[in-house]
Amino acid sequence: MRLRYLLISLLLLGGCSETPNEPVDNLPPETYLSLQPDGELRTTTSRQHIHWWGDDPDGFVAGYFISFDSNTWSFTTKNDSVFALSLSGSDTTYAFFVRAVDDQGNGAYDADGPYGAEPFTDENGNGVWDAGEAYIDLGAVDPTPADLRYPIENSPPVVEFTQGSDVPDTTFTVATFSWYGTDLDGDETIQNYMYALNDTLDPASWKALPRSTTFITLFEDDGLVEGDNIFYLKAVDIAGAQSRIIRMPDTSRSWYVRKPRTELLIVDDYGPADASAGFYRSLTDTLFGGRFRGADVFDIKTGASSTARGKYLPPYINPTFIETLKLFRYVIWYGDNTPTLDVAQLALPDYQASGGHILFTAAFPESAIDPRGGITDFAPIDSLSPQSIRFVPAGTRALPDAESPGYPELVRDNEGVPVAFVRNLFRKINARNFYRFEESARWEGEPVVAVRSGDSRFMLFGIPLHRFDAEGSVGELIYLIFRNEFGLQ
């Protein structure tokens, strides 16, 4: 029995001793594309995340050729990618093709195949083939690419004003607006922005701005009118779709625009409730025969706190507040013991450079002594004394410096409100001392309390002038400053 099994086994082995020597052809891979998660292809936005994969029955998939026209192909080893499909109209349909390719190449570089030259390993990442960079040897390609049509529906853009950029309730003939635009089809599909002032019905009232412009300052020449105004804005994409129209102010309200009344602006930087506002208004009303009667007042103090600026200040000091100052030839800026120095530091250098004339009067607290700049950035002084005069008694006299003869004496009034934080001012080398305190047991020597710039266009008083009018001489002082220093006749 054992011999019989042995014979049968030998016969079987002998019958299998011959093997076929014909090679088996390489089978191409199959390629697949995924639909939406629920299996239904719907009209959607132009940003598409497309997934694909391949299966090779006798090897491995080395990569994929992808195309949007089935003529021009590019190679990738990825299984997915996000595509921003350009819009040429309100709605567009795109076809996507993908072919899997296996790794059973022939070792040759295919320069002119139907899918272009074989890809290479871009070792230095410069996007072009360099000597020594190996080609990726690809094999069989799926002869029947997977493909899908993607119906793209254009999404209209969205535009919103920048948070915190609200225009104040009242402005002069300068207003700034800031916004940002977005689009589900890609922000780059926004073609331009359109704005209008007060009228949205007349097509000619809409003005176009390039997509790169998201910040604009408007003036009277741009259509700001005295009275109530509304700013309208919309975005338009490359297919012509428009966003909803937004407006500033963003309710049924409007904001009030006022044209300058004279060449003089009074900046009210004063918090205490006293007669200071009426004092400066009454003096300027009669100055030069009423030339500045009804001068405009810009209140920058109301609503201010240690963490917030005054509520009437615009969100953007540069350019809005600076351009507002430039509407006027002269500025009288009067402050209390805590003047808004950060705003002055930003605005006054540009205003001076434009040819403006400034009379600045305030006391200066410890925060004014800033080694990084502060008041010395815009005023004709290099520094202030670290110690201040904490109390200036009634009857104290401020006398014109020997460098500034012909000006009246100023005398501290007898009002109950104290005058404090007065410092000795140290002028810049090209400036001149203007006023000094008389000698007193309360301070050392004759501290300088007023300085004028070398070009006589900036007059700095480190005392509140309205508290030094006991003899009615401040009116004469301001008249002489405008005539002698500012050159007004």
Could you give a short account of the major beta sheet? Answer: 9 strands, mixed
Supply the CATH superfamily name of the largest domain: Class I glutamine amidotransferase (GATase) domain
Termini separation (Å)?
142 Å
CATH topology of the largest domain: Rossmann fold
Can you count the helices? 5
What is the C-alpha radius of gyration, as a whole number of Å? 40 Å
Mean pLDDT across all amino acids: 88
Coarse morphology? elongated
Quickly give the CATH architecture of the largest domain.
3-Layer(aba) Sandwich
Number of domains: 3
SS elements, strand count: 28
CATH top level assignment of the largest domain: Alpha Beta
Largest sheet: spatial strand order: 19-18-20-21-28-27-26-23-24
Alpha-beta classification: alpha+beta
The percent of residues in helical segments reads 10-25%
Structure description:
- The protein folds into three domains: 124 residues, Immunoglobulin-like, CATH 2.60.40; 100 residues, Sandwich (Immunoglobulin-like); 222 residues, Class I glutamine amidotransferase (GATase) domain (Rossmann fold), CATH 3.40.50.880.
- The N terminus is likely disordered.
- The chain contains five helices and 28 strands.
- A nine-stranded mixed sheet has the order 19-18-20-21-28-27-26-23-24, with helices on one face.
- Helix 3 crosses helix 4.
- By secondary structure, it is an alpha+beta fold.
